[in-house]
From TrEMBL:
The gene is P2RX2. The keyword Manganese does not apply. One of its GO terms (molecular function) is ATP binding. This is P2X purinoceptor. The keyword Glycoprotein applies.
């Protein structure tokens, strides 16, 4: 029994090795059915068309790709306009002046009267500002929707129609503002958008300005076909391409997006990698609350020794320059992966047709018996065991009396008598 365990272990190891080194091949059954054969070839054709037309040609599945280039944007606005009270140049109607990817151009302003830091009644539109006595006004209290810090006094309102809490603020807080439009010449402002991109994986860089001479940008204007590399746009052109009315947008303000797309096939010459421009409005046009685009800023000055200011509520067109893109170049690894996927997907037709035969046709039993032919397991092979001890050698046969002379040997053997 002790010797049986090593033999059993050896047999188990041999069986495992035999199972690992064996190969099973699927049985091929030819089914002569016109409809099924047509469906099978049609599925194969669809798979081949998909990988050939869409994956390889359109999606360029043979290329290594890089998404999102490194990008820099520099903008510059030029132009002069006027309102009923003054002439406005680029230093006054553009904010911020640094020329980044986001900037706004003023098209209408509401100018409040001169204000000074002093005490005055709180505005009528502020909640909880009305009062009947000083007890209703808490000293040094502030309201997030108010204009300043309350003094604790209840004073008559400026119009004499009631009382409100007195505040220390830039007064008057409810002065009537003067509205002025800057849109008369605003549509003719020119906007230069300078963009440079870099794909670090491929070491490829390019810009949207290709000038043959130094004064090229002084005389050109953007055109999709004839001046693609002259990125100078009129403000009215940006609004028009976004599908908006300039007069309406200048009145309420809004946000216009300039989208620059770089889709570069680096297997082609560098001249084939060109920017593509698109324009659209980014803020919701029909919003009922907080419609348009506006902000406030102030200009300060001294008048008779008193520090004063003019508060301006500005409406304008904000321009957001957005850059995105991708680059692709031939690489062996994605090509092999795509080809392997395509060849594997061709077998989809066999799987679908097998499923139809096994589940949807009236000969599924016959097909199943031919497709899955299971042979009975072979009986176990008996391995003869070696003897435990070697047999003893043959001995000579002697007749009694046991004398040396009377010994005889089997026939065919030689012996010598002593």
């Amino acid at each position: 029994m002790q010797n049986g365990h090593p033999r059993a272990s050896a047999m188990g190891v041999r069986g495992c090795l035999r199972a690992v080194s064996s190969y099973s091949s699927p049985q091929v059954v030819v089914v002569r059915n016109g409809h099924l054969g047509t469906a099978y070839r049609a599925l194969q054709l669809l798979v081949l068309l998909y990988f050939t037309g869409y994956v390889f040609i359109i999606q360029k599945g043979y290329q290594e790709r890089e998404m999102g280039p490194e990008s820099s944007i520099i903008t510059k606005v030029k132009g002069v306009t006027q309102s009923p009270s003054k002439v406005w140049d680029v230093g006054e109607y553009v904010a911020p002046p640094e020329g980044g990817s986001t900037f706004s151009i003023l098209t209408r302003v509401d100018i409040s009267p001169a204000q000074a830091m002093e005490t005055c009644p709180e505005g009528r539109a502020v909640a909880n500002a009305t009062c009947s006595s000083d007890q209703d006004c808490v000293p040094r209290d502030t309201d997030t929707s108010g204009h300043g810090e309350r003094t604790g006094r209840c004073v008559p309102q400026a119009g004499g129609t009631g009382k409100s809490c007195e505040v220390l603020a830039w007064c008057p807080v409810d002065g009537d503002s003067i509205s002025e439009s800057l849109a008369e010449m605003a549509s003719q402002f020119t906007v230069l958008i300078k963009n440079n991109i870099h794909f670090p994986r491929f070491g490829f860089s390019k810009g949207n300005i290709q000038a043959s001479e130094s004064g090229y940008l002084k005389s050109c204007m953007f055109n999709t076909t004839s001046a693609l590399y002259c990125p100078i746009f009129k403000l009215g052109f940006l609004v028009e391409q976004a599908g908006e009315d300039f007069a309406e947008l200048a009145e309420k303000g809004g946000v216009i997006g300039v989208i620059i797309s770089w889709n570069c096939n680096l297997d082609l010459p560098d001249a084939e990698c060109n920017p593509h421009y698109s324009f659209r409005r980014l803020d919701p046009k029909g919003a009922l609350a907080s419609q348009g685009y506006n902000y406030r800023f102030a200009k300060y000055y001294n008048w008779n020794g008193t520090r004063s200011r003019v508060l301006i509520k500005a409406y304008g067109i904000r321009v957001d320059v957005i850059v995105h893109g991708q680059a692709g170049k031939f690489s062996l690894i994605p090509t092999i992966i795509t080809l392997a996927t395509a060849l594997t997907s061709v077998g989809l037709g066999s799987f679908v047709c097998d499923w139809i035969l096994l589940c949807c046709m009236d000969k599924e039993q016959r097909y199943s018996s031919r497709k899955f032919d299971c042979s009975p397991a072979a009986p176990p092979r008996l391995i003869p065991l070696p003897p435990l001890l070697p047999p003893p050698p043959p001995l000579p046969h002697c007749l009694p009396p046991p004398t040396l002379a009377s010994c005889w040997y089997p026939s065919g053997t030689e012996h010598n008598e002593l």
